[in-house]
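hi!! sorry for the late reply, been swamped w classes. u asked for the two structures so here they r. pasted raw, havent cleaned anything up. first the sequence of the first protein and right below it the tokens
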Amino acid sequence: MVRSIALLALMEAQRHGRWGASFHGFRVQAQRQGPARGCAALTEVSLSVSFGKTVVARCRVITNYAQAMEPNA
């Protein structure tokens, strides 16, 4: 379930800039960092997963921003 929330957080951060949720003590946060270097079609998102005060995972992901855009946006 935490993995599903993390994937949703990545997609929502692409669209809206920031997204977070919690589930049974886990906290998932994602924030868009802006376009990747030299390519406007990609964007960089930082993702953090913690359990209580312990950071379980932290990473930066470069994603295809075109997939996050709404069809009529």
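now the second protein. again sequence first, tokens right under
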Amino acid sequence: MVVRTVAERFPAKVEVITAVKEGSYGPYRSVLFKRTDIQGEGAKVWRAMNPSEAEQFSKGQQVYLVPTTNKKGNPSWDIELLPEVASASKAPSTATQVIESQIAQQKPQESGLTSEQKTAIAEYVRGQADLLAYCWTVAESKLPDKSEESHRCAASTLFISAQRKFSL
């Protein structure tokens, strides 16, 4: 059994998910996680996993990396999903799809943005909404006897705090 403290979880973001590759143990996909608590080369963590495991992740998704050891006793990482963020990032709402479609249909000269910029903005906004939804869930769970207004204030404070701490 491994006993860990909460402090041994490190916030990270999914940066890259590779295509399926064939390895000596069968098909796999590599996922690059970038720690948001540190900078430099040590912030990058690559994990190879079977393709069905990799499907749980989407680019920009927030996760926690938890230090562990592999079967050979070498240092490794477990990935801990944030429940609300994980489900929200995989299934965008119809309203989100409609808004993204409207943004994409605008001509570049109308908005002054290229389609790549529009896509990047939409991804960023979706990620920020996922973070806000997660902050709301945490506020509700930590302050169960408080009013909706208290949850709103706490969620906003957590959201702004996370943005500042992790330069989002």
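hope this helps!! also noticed smth abt the second:
The beta strands are 10-17, 21-23, 26-35, 44-49, 62-69, 75-81.
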